[in-house]
Specification:
Length: 290
């Protein structure tokens, strides 16, 4: 188990964001059943050694598929480049993947430059971030957040495990606000606080342990993930940036952690099922990551 993010497949994707005035062009993806920006995976040649397609060449391919006339390269402008964007597969049973996005702006002087036979919409940024009005891909909101910021959440989570006989178990803590078990961790309290400082503080506070005596934290994050999802607590779409750190507990700390009723050691079977053996829910994030 313990995939963490390093073994999620990393996929290079180019997206093109056509604009006309204050409106964005979105196409309907039948597989996703949602509107999204035109996009494609970056190609890799089959030769030895394999050669990756240039990002701009991939962007030109996307533009050529949606425009009536051929697009001129000068029209495409790099808007943003972001990696480690975590997104689920098309089906609930498919694993999540990490995406590295290059997003290109494509300003147009008129809306009829795009093909009329495409199932599409021209939407303002506010309309394109309202999933109650249209079926929208989370990727749309993530890309727009680079220019029109969403609520942001920056947090650090502790990955704590133990071996019991032949079975690996992971420590989770009941989150009263979410109504489910989740990693020990929390939000950065200050913009100046590092992710390492954040996870250290959270372990001290949530587990009542002493740094350097009861636990140690690996100095480098296991991985970093970014994703966009609906926040039930704040009732709005939120852009999440999370770093995960391996935390080692002393033998005495392990015994103290077991005594707290809000702590629970979860098995692989429970995490995969999304519920404990006695029926209490486990966060989706634990299932994605572990």
């Amino acid at each position: 188990m313990a995939k963490l993010l390093g073994v999620y497949p990393l996929v290079d994707v180019v997206a093109v964001a056509p604009t006309c005035g204050d409106r964005y062009f979105l196409v309907y993806n039948l597989g996703w059943e949602a509107y999204t920006f035109p996009m494609t995976k970056r190609k890799t040649s089959q030769g030895e050694p394999p050669v990756d397609e240039e990002w701009m060449d991939a962007a030109r391919r996307v533009a050529a598929e949606i425009l009536v006339p051929d697009v001129q390269p000068a029209e495409l402008r790099l808007r943003c480049d972001f990696a480690n964007y975590l997104q689920s597969g098309r089906e609930p049973t498919q694993p999540r993947k990490r995406y590295h996005f290059h997003v290109y702006d494509l300003p147009l002087d008129r809306e009829d430059r795009v093909r009329a036979d495409l199932v599409s919409k021209w939407l303002t940024p506010d309309e394109a971030r309202d999933p109650d009005r249209w079926p929208l891909s989370p990727t749309v909101q993530r890309i727009l957040s680079k220019s029109f910021p969403l609520r942001g959440s920056r947090a650090s989570w502790a990955v704590i495990s133990r071996q019991v006989s032949a079975q690996r178990q992971w420590l989770a803590q009941w989150n009263e606000r979410w109504g489910r078990f989740h990693f020990v961790g929390g939000h950065k309290e200050l913009s100046s606080e590092s992710h390492l400082e954040c996870v250290t503080r959270e372990v001290e506070q949530e587990l009542s342990l002493r740094r350097g005596v009861d636990f140690t934290v690996a100095p480098t994050a296991l991985d970093r993930l970014e994703y966009t999802a609906w926040s039930e607590g704040y009732r709005q779409t939120t852009a999440y940036e999370i770093e995960l750190f391996a935390v080692q507990l002393s033998r005495e700390a392990l015994a103290r952690v077991d005594q707290a009723p809000n702590n629970r050691w979860l098995t692989e079977t429970e995490i995969a099922a999304g519920r404990t053996n006695d029926g209490r829910p486990i966060s989706d994030e634990m299932r994605w990551i572990l």
